[in-house]
Design goal:
The structure holds 2 protein chains of 2 kinds.
Chain A (H helix, E strand, L loop, with lengths): L10 H29 L12 H4 L1 H33 L7 H27 L12 H23 L8 H20 L2 E3 L18 E3 L3 H36 L6 H15 L14 H13 L1 H14 L5 H5 L1 H24 L1 H7 L3 H31 L6 H34 L11 H39 L17
Antiparallel strand pairs in A: 1-2
Helix pairs in contact in A: 1-3, 1-4, 1-16, 3-4, 3-5, 3-7, 3-14, 4-5, 5-6, 6-7, 6-8, 7-12, 7-14, 8-10, 9-12, 10-12, 12-14, 12-15, 14-15, 14-16, 15-16
Chain B lengths: L2 H30 L13 H4 L11 H6 L1
Classes of the chains: A mainly alpha, B mainly alpha.
Chain lengths: 498, 67
């Protein structure tokens, strides 16, 4: 047994790489389209008023958010897990037929769940809870997919050769546990068919449509405990898992301080869960809870910057690699955007700032510098690092990758700067009043003023999408036309063609 | 003492406990530098850098079984 040549088996990782790219294209294309709908409202009825139900902003917006978060990002998390998990635990999926079966089953159930989610959201079935729009049968499918992932994680850990768990594994485990807890509690819902009207009528609802088990302020509290921690456990924790593996591996540098990575982990785990209250500032939730949300949001800077600085310092003495390799560029900029958005978020969570920022486009800008800059760039970098190793081929084009980097970076900058200006303009105009307290502007005044910024935002998004197509093409060509490489070329820096 | 007063004290002492716990953990990590099995914490970075399937693990499961 010990003498048999053994290789890591990336079958399941490759499957999820495919869904990462496909769902990224779907989610980002819809995102760009609805961004232009906001700038040019005529697009809402582009296919005629008869089909406006399917093309308007409100029908498409959940399709955008859910496909980039639960499609692109979650696929990226799964793809990297099935790659990183094996390598740092030094055990191959090929060693366990059971784990291989569970991994493939997880993939196909995930694909079925995604298809069902896309179709039902498009048809207008929604629970109307932000980022938790899926109706209950899809929720059940998602829970099964998640449990199967848990079996993969703990199954692989169970048969590992490396006794200690690398820091990335801790972050993947936290992702698994965190999302499981959040998803179950926020999606407690009852089909309306089981409801009885005040007049005593029954059978008046729908089997597929459901409503939350919580009501009013309680529902808001659970929803934003979920909503903010979805940012924590989908957009932060697993992406930190990725950068802790891929940046040291690609650069050949040991993590600057492994001890700091341990500290930051526990700091992040403790602090993040309490910060969701900042979504409900100036609402009907208790004042102390709003204050707690603000305070924990500010404290959150420490563990976030602990990880981000640790990554930047990992490049100490090796900064020429940032200039030389577009792949390292993606990761260093991701880390920088992580620092940037984890400073911006706490600022927005301070009550006096939030009084201007709440409900404005500044929030949308904040989410997108985090997701496009940090999440998107890190997943793109991870897939670029994995591609030569799973396909045993050189990355097709370094110059295409570099061009993609600059086009997408420009896109992000256009996106967040336009949303900053739009958001602060909105916030100031909404609250402007004369000496008698009469509002100075009506809502349509703000809409007029914001038009150029909305057009700029759409353009920024379009540039990012163009870059994403370049990424998809580069990976496709790597698979099909890249030069074949030997194992010895794959130690650290990924081999790239011109 | 009513419940709210109790909750306030409990909250205060919980925060104190967590702050002391965190700082003790930092002190412990930087003072000892090595974990109980004698491996320097910084060596754990090699789990990512030397991750081919035939590379030697930083701390092997099979070493454990031999003991």
């Amino acid at each position: 047994m010990e003498n048999r040549p053994l290789e890591y088996d990336y079958t399941v990782a490759k499957m999820f790489m495919l869904t990462t790219i496909v769902l990224g294209i779907v989610g980002m294309t819809i995102g760009v389209f609805i961004a232009f709908e906001l700038a040019f409202p005529g697009l809402n009825t582009i296919l005629g008023s008869g089909l406006a139900e399917y093309t308007n902003f409100s029908r498409l917006r959940p399709l955008h958010t859910d496909s980039v978060a639960f499609g692109f990002t979650v696929s990226g998390i799964f793809a990297t897990w099935f790659y990183v998990g094996q390598r740092v635990l030094k055990v191959s999926m090929a060693e366990s037929k059971f784990l291989m079966f569970v991994g493939k089953l997880q993939f196909w159930l995930y694909v079925i769940g995604v298809a069902a989610a896309v179709v039902t959201l498009f048809m207008g079935y929604t629970t109307s809870k932000e980022y938790a729009e899926f109706e209950w049968p899809i929720d059940i499918a998602i829970v099964i997919v998640w449990v199967l992932w848990g079996v993969s994680i703990f199954g692989l850990i169970g048969i590992r050769r490396e006794k200690s768990l690398y820091i990335s594994i801790w972050y993947y485990i936290a992702t698994f546990l965190g999302v499981a807890m959040l998803y179950l509690f926020n999606n407690m819902e009852v089909p309306t068919m089981l409801a009885t009207s005040p007049a005593g009528e029954t059978n008046i609802g729908d089997w597929l449509h459901s409503i939350s088990m919580y009501a009013g302020t309680n529902d808001a509290l659970v929803q934003w405990w979920y909503g903010h921690n979805a940012v924590a456990f989908v957009f932060t924790v697993p992406i930190v898992a990725m950068i802790y593996y891929f940046l040291p591996k690609e650069s050949g540098q040991a993590i600057y301080s492994y001890k700091l990575s341990l500290l930051s982990f526990w700091g992040l785990m403790f602090v993040y869960l309490w910060a969701g209250g900042h979504h409900l500032l100036f609402s009907t939730v208790p004042d102390w809870m709003q204050t707690m949300g603000s305070v924990f949001s500010v404290v959150l800077i420490l563990p976030s910057w602990g990880s981000a600085i640790n990554m930047l310092l990992t490049m100490k003495g090796e900064w020429q690699q940032v200039a030389a390799s577009p792949l390292i560029k993606f990761m260093i900029l991701a880390s920088t955007f992580y620092m940037f958005s984890t400073l911006e978020g706490p600022i927005q969570a301070i009550k006096s700032v939030n009084a201007i920022a709440h409900f404005t486009d500044w929030i949308v800008g904040h989410v997108h510098d985090g997701t496009l800059g940090w999440v998107g760039f890190m997943i793109i970098a991870a897939l670029y690092h994995m591609a030569p190793r799973v396909f045993k081929r050189e990355l097709y084009s370094k110059s295409l990758m570099a061009a993609q980097f600059w086009i997408q970076t420009l896109g992000i900058v256009l996106y967040f700067t336009s949303m900053w200006i739009a958001g602060i303009t909105q916030g100031m105009m909404w609250r402007a009043h004369d000496e008698f307290g009469n509002l100075a502007y009506s809502f349509i005044d703000t809409v007029d003023v914001l038009h150029p910024y909305y057009a700029l935002r759409g353009t920024g998004g379009l540039l990012y999408l163009v870059g994403f197509f370049m990424f998809a093409y580069n990976i496709y060509k790597t698979m099909t036309a890249g030069r074949r490489v030997e194992e010895s070329e794959l130690q650290n820096a990924s081999p790239m063609g011109a | 003492m009513n419940f709210n007063e109790f909750a306030a004290y409990a909250y205060f002492f919980l925060i104190m406990f967590l702050v002391i716990g965190t700082y003790s953990y930092i002190y412990h990590l930087y003072k000892n530098r090595k974990d109980v099995t004698g491996v320097d914490y910084e060596d754990y970075s090699n789990m990512a850098l030397k991750d081919d399937i035939d590379d030697a693990p930083v701390k092997s499961m099979s070493d454990d079984k031999e003991k």
